[in-house]
Amino acid sequence: MASGVEHILACLSSSPSNGRIIRTAARMAQVFGGTFTALYVKTPDGAAASEEDKRRLRDNQALAERLGARIETVYGEDVPFQIAEYARLNGVTKIVLGRSAAGKRRLFGRPPLTEQLLSYAPEVDIHIIPDKSADGPYRPKQAAESGKSVAKNAMWSLGILAVATLISLLLHAWGFTDANIIMVYILGVVLTSVVTTRPVYALVSSVASVLVFNYLFTVPRFSFAAYGTGYPVTFLIMFLTAYITSTLAIRYKARAGQAALTARRTKMLFDANQALSKARGRDEILDTAAEQLVGLLGRNTVIYPLADGLLQEPMLYPAAGKMTYDTDAERPAAWRALTEDAPGEGDKGGYLYAPLKVNDRKYGVVGLDVRAEMLDGSERDILSSILAECTLALENERNAREKEAAAVLAESEKLRADLLRTISHDLRTPLTTISGNAANLLANEDKFDPKTRRAIYGDIYDDAQWLTELVENLLYATRIEEGRMTLHPSAELVSDIVDEAAAHTRRKTRKGAVRVIHSEELLLVRADARLVVQVIVNLIDNAFKYAGENAAVTVTDDRCGDMAEVLVADDGPGVADNEKERVFEKFFCGQAPVADDRRRLGLGLYLCRAIIQAHGGTIEVRDNQPHGAVFRFTLPREEVKLHE
Predict the structure, then answer these.
(1) What is the per-residue pLDDT for 517?
(2) 3-class SS letters over 364-431
(3) Residues with Cβ < 8 Å from 541, sequence gap 6 or more?
(4) What percent of the chain has pLDDT over 90?
(5) Cα–Cα distance, 536 to 633 (Å, whole number)
(6) Of 20, 218, 240, 467, which one's alpha carbon is 20 to 30 angstroms from that of 445?
(7) Pairing between β-strand 513-517 and β-strand 70-75 as defined by DSSP bridges
(8) What end-to-end distance do the CA atoms of the chain give, in Å?
């Protein structure tokens, strides 16, 4: 016995006793704590099976799925070899067979299935389950051929035989030997086996070819008698050669059909995989999977997404035209398939439901319309493959979202830590200065002359003003991050906004000057004046901070097409080219030295960009000539309407 986890294999078939084999294998897998696989070997004869056998095979497959088996399908003519090869490649330790499948040794023919399996895979344990109801080996019945198909195949057979006979008569007239004529009839039998659908036509064609050759070309001609003593052997060899050749042609055609089917299915699954890999988001992935199922299986499809442990409203995908679906009647069956982790039909047998699940995570339920016809083995394989690809895409999408959320959270925590670290540093110094100056005034106010007291009052005022601006900027940044920045736009004159901002900055103690240049025409914009004033104030303060207290700052407003533009220029050192794209980022302070470096938080320009973009404008920085920086922003102009 192999070490490790046991792998139990039961072979699927249309045998009436196959259900007992499946249940026994499922119990063995449960007892041994191993995995359970149900394998179906699809042979060329499977397509011609009767409807009763096909129905019984589907029932056995559904039973295996309910018992927790993984359904697998392989293709080939040599059933024992295919079973043994699958067992060898997939680590199967035990194979469960019925007595009818095991068979008995016959005098002629191939040995029973058990002996063949032992010769192909001697390391695998084979368990034979006795079945009293199976008196002999089970032989699947072939489906009855329709009258139209019989007539078509008969016409092809007769036509090919007639053409072969006509060619043979011509060859005989031209003096060709009997060997050449025999080859023509053998070719005709091969062609018959290729164009017809069942081996019986090739067999009949072989017999008919021998009889026609005997009647037309052996002495005495036009009779079934033959004078030559070697003719019976010739007829026998001709018949065997024709029949064996036709049999090989039939097998080749069947293998070619299986290869084409496998290639088509592989291409379909590859296309489905490509489409699912390009889908983004849960709904798009589910839509893509449903479209693939509708295209491949041609059945109405329904998907119940799972959210918060509950099935959401179904998503319907009709195969053709309109689709009728009773949600109230079908939802319990979908929920049952989800909770039982196994495919199942509705109470009325209308839809087959399969869970969308990977590992222990569930994403929903997929339902296929089976009212007209149940899924066969190949369709179930396609369904399983598409569902596996869909769940993998959903899992990847979920992992990507979680990874992105984790990255955003990590970045947010980093920014929060940087902000707290910066604020704690920036708040401590001015608060200490305010506290120290206030304590000094309280203790020694009478000892200070008026000029000293005024200087102390000015320091306290400056620190308090800076703290106020810091708090306002932090509040604005918080509103932007949370999406709570609300605009209250109205028609405003640009000149009034610029004058108010300049007046606000002139009230501050500075040695430099703020020069204002207005446009010759009245510029009207629709904006929140309070926020735009804050933008200009921030730009002017930023100019003095980096250009120095003695800098010359110029504020200009003008028209620029359908926009109004405002420029704040200084004559300082300017902004380095490698920093122009980053100056508007949050917490970016640049490398330029500042006299009072403790008052650099890196929020001013970030807030400017957020406010201007919220108004539908743009903001940028460029070089001033001969030196310095120019910050330019635009606002949408408001048309002036005159009512006379």
Answers:
(1) 92
(2) EEEEEECCCCCCCHHHHHHHHHHHHHHHHHHHHHHHHHHHHHHHHHHHHHHHHHHHHHHHHHHHHHHH
(3) 469, 505, 604
(4) 10
(5) 10
(6) 467
(7) unpaired
(8) 103
Residues across the chain: 644
Q: Are 300 and 317 in contact (CB under 8 A)?
A: yes
Identity of the amino acid at 483 = G
Report if pTM > 0.90: no
Each as own residue / partner, the long-range contacts of residues 26-31 (CB below 8 Å, 24 or more positions apart, any chain) are 26/64, 26/67, 26/68, 26/69, 28/94, 28/96, 28/127, 29/68
Q: How many CB atoms lie within 10 A of CB 541?
A: 19
| H or E element, residue 136 | none
Angle at 357 between CA 355 and CA 361, to 5 degrees: 130
How far apart are the C-alpha atoms of 3 and 1, rounded to whole Å? 6
Residue reference for tokens 């693939």: 292
Tell me if residue 559 falls in helix, strand or coil: strand
Hunting for tokens 């009997």 — which residue is that? Answer: 178
The closest of 421, 279, 381 to 74, measured between CA atoms, is 381
Write down the pLDDT at residue 634.
94
Angle at the Cα of 60 (from 58 to 61), degrees rounded to 5? 65
Angle at 604 between CA 610 and CA 548, to 5 degrees: 145
Question: What is the DSSP code (8-state) at residue 142?
Answer: B
Residue 21 DSSP class: H
When pLDDT is averaged across residues 430-451 and rounded to a whole number, the result is: 84
Buried b (16+ CB within 10 A) or exposed e, 359-368: eeebbbbbbb
Place of tokens 């026609």: 212
Contact 53, 141 (CB under 8 A): yes
The two tokens of residue 298 are 């041609």
Bond prior to 430 in cis (omega within 30° of 0): no
Tell me how far apart the alpha carbons of residues 36 and 79 are, in angstroms, rounded to a whole number: 20
Question: Collapsing DSSP states into helix, strand and coil, what is residue 490?
Answer: strand
* Under 8 Å between Cβ of 430 and 466: yes
Which of 457-461, 530-534, 543-547, 565-569 has maximum average pLDDT?
Answer: 565-569
Alpha carbon distance 78, 185 (integer Å): 30
Q: Is the pLDDT of residue 134 over 60?
A: no
Q: Which domains does the chain have, with CATH numbers?
A: 7-129 (3.40.50.620), 147-258 (no CATH), 279-403 (3.30.450.40), 483-636 (3.30.565.10)
* Secondary structure (3-state) at 96: strand
pLDDT for 252 equals 76
Structure tokens at 81: 């070899």
